[in-house]
Amino acid sequence: MFFEFVSALLKFALMAKNTLDKILQSQGFGSRRWCAELIQDGEVSINGAVFNDVRCKVETDGLSFSIYDQTWSYREHVYIALNKPANYECSRKASHHPGVLKLLPEQFDLRDVQPVGRLDHDTTGLLLMSDDGPFIHKQSSPKHHVPKIYVATTHDAVTEELVAALLKGVQLHDENAPLAAVSCRKVGEHQIEIVLEQGKYHQVKRMLAAAGNHCVALCRSQIGELKLADLQLAEGQWCYLDEALLALLKPV
Ligand code: URA
Predict the structure, then answer these.
(1) Is the domain 147-223 a CATH 3.30.1830.10 member?
(2) Which of 24, 30, 170, 251 is deepest in the core (most CB within 10 A)?
């Protein structure tokens, strides 16, 4: 009884409350002033009722709100999986092609959502995105040995020698030692699945070139145990990653 009371008290003390304008700003809906105007104009509802009191504090835990009739859940951070189409750049300052942020709701840009690592503009497939700095850092760190699976379409037919060379390791120009695939197998006459733990610049394409073939298309199908196919996202579609899906990204 005593412990239940203490834990309820602790939970109450830890509950985060804030004014709605600050909450909306934290979710990327604009400056605090802009968000306050939205609220005062009656554009924001909570549980179906217009909420136009800017000063009243609101509990963020489990909060859903609607802006212009579109409903959002409060999230301290967002963790996203995107099925990246070709011809989108992963950099924040995209130059030759639109950036991948263009495929997400506008407010994610304002809350500083970024790609976790990079895929080339012509590479398709599974791309993680987040606004959680430590998560991005950890996932991109070379010390974090999470295997990434790529399916490459090759110009020349995939041979046993190609598979053997990638498994043994190939020397790239600016690397001190040969780089090898963690595993590798032929999956079609012109298709090869390559598993890597590092994420060096153009690594798959350069490894294939160093092994005497040429990559004509590349798709990332899996990161850790998170499989793009299981997410059932069409190209250009995205979804939030909940705790169960995030757990699949842990090193094996
Ligand atoms: N390797 C490449 O060559 N390109 C990518 O986009 C990812 C891995």
Answers:
(1) no
(2) 24
